TrEMBL record:
The iminoaspartate product is unstable in aqueous solution and can decompose to oxaloacetate and ammonia. It comes from Thermosipho africanus (strain TCF52B). It is an enzyme of class 1 (oxidoreductase). Keywords: NAD, NADP, Oxidoreductase, Pyridine nucleotide biosynthesis. NAD(+) binds at A111, N166. Residues 144-229 form the Aspartate dehydrogenase domain. GO terms for biological process: NAD+ biosynthetic process. This is L-aspartate dehydrogenase. GO terms for molecular function: aspartate dehydrogenase [NAD(P)+] activity; NAD binding; NADP binding; oxidoreductase activity, acting on the CH-NH2 group of donors, NAD or NADP as acceptor. Specifically catalyzes the NAD or NADP-dependent dehydrogenation of L-aspartate to iminoaspartate. Pathway: Cofactor biosynthesis; NAD(+) biosynthesis; iminoaspartate from L-aspartate (dehydrogenase route): step 1/1. The gene is nadX. It catalyses: L-aspartate + NADP(+) + H2O = oxaloacetate + NH4(+) + NADPH + H(+); L-aspartate + NAD(+) + H2O = oxaloacetate + NH4(+) + NADH + H(+).
Length: 244
């Protein structure tokens, strides 16, 4: 494998470490002019012919700026910054554009799990609720007790909290309906970690998942997010695939 990393910060290095033994070499491009003793740095963004696939771990803006070049190249595209799909116009343009390409798009489960269950029962789902609890400082607040600061569908949650969109967007993409995902966001001084609770109600059964993620070196991204992307890459290159 010889991937191209779009963005080469903490997340990219986590992914690289997880893919030791899978990757022979790699390219990387970072607008912040990051340098590394490993890999081949691109001074300008382009898709090398011998690139195996592209891994985005930069930003929502990077997804929007470079997705056409990547899709035109017919390279598979792994996207960590799923918040890009919160933009309905971009989302529609992206999925129209992909129709004429052989590229496959891979979106990891990110900071949560249970996506395999949701994919399996998608057409039977009646309701999905995402409850997120974070310390008050995550919202620039100083609450002394737990406060519900938002309750509404994922579309409105994305508008109100654009910096906290990846989890709700990934859920909504999996469900296939942004309005079917109800979001509750709490400012809670009793928690030190970001906690996500996903509740699924369906005619197949009812399910609840709770994720309490330890902080990573990058406060904007949980450690689980790049780990889930690395696992997705490995799964696509293994002969035995377990789980949805």
């Amino acid at each position: 494998m010889k991937p191209l990393f779009l963005g080469f910060g903490n997340a990219a290095n986590v992914i690289l470490k997880e893919l030791e033994g899978y990757i022979q070499d790699f390219y990387y491009f970072d607008e912040k002019n990051v340098t590394s003793s490993k890999g081949k740095k691109l001074e300008k963004f382009f898709i090398p012919d011998d690139c195996s696939f592209v891994v985005e771990c930069a930003s929502v803006e990077a997804v929007k700026e470079y997705y056409r070049d990547i899709i035109i190249s017919n390279k598979d595209f792994y996207i960590l910054s799923t918040g890009a799909f919160a933009d309905e116009n971009f989302r529609n343009d992206f999925f129209r554009f992909i129709e004429n390409s052989t590229s496959k798009i891979y979106i990891p489960s990110g900071a949560i799990g249970g996506i395999d269950v949701i994919n399996a029962i998608k057409k039977y789902i009646e309701k999905v609720v995402l409850r997120t609890r974070k310390p008050p400082k995550a919202f620039s607040r100083d609450d002394k007790e737990k406060m519900l600061i938002f309750s509404g569908d994922s579309i409105e949650a994305i508008k109100r909290f654009p910096k906290n969109t990846n989890v709700s967007v990934t859920l909504a993409l999996s469900v296939g309906d942004f309005r079917k995902v109800h979001v509750e966001i709490y400012s809670d001084p009793k928690v030190e970690k970001n906690i996500h609770e996903v509740e699924v109600v369906s005619s197949v059964g009812n399910y609840k998942f709770i994720f309490s993620n330890n902080p990573s070196n990058n406060p904007k991204t949980s450690l689980l997010a790049p780990l889930s992307l690395a696992a997705l890459i490995k799964k696509n290159f293994e002969n035995v695939k377990i789980g949805g």
